[in-house]
Amino acid sequence: ALMITDECINCDVCEPECPNDAIYMGIEIYEINPNKCTECVGHFDAPQCRQVCPVDCIPLHPDHVESREQLLVKYQKLIAPK
Ligand code: SF4
Ligand code: SF4
Question: Where is the 4Fe-4S ferredoxin-type domain (predicted)?
Fold first, then answer.
């Protein structure tokens, strides 16, 4: 999963781009729910939030390093009917 650092300027452009609705407004800045972020695996070739962020403040979350296979499993769970 990716994360948003405190360099975020709350420009609002990433939130609507996330195919998993993983991005939300936190107390001060936008945040990413690591349980919903597949790094866009399953939807796009590249992380959409990172592509639009004007200040490049969306690195890999050091506590949530996942393989492509793990990200694909997460994606499949997210799209599975509840
Ligand atoms: Fe959403 Fe993709 Fe960004 Fe993860 S990498 S927060 S899934 S847009
Ligand atoms: Fe923050 Fe970047 Fe998202 Fe803008 S695109 S709200 S600067 S994380």
Answer: 1-28, 30-63
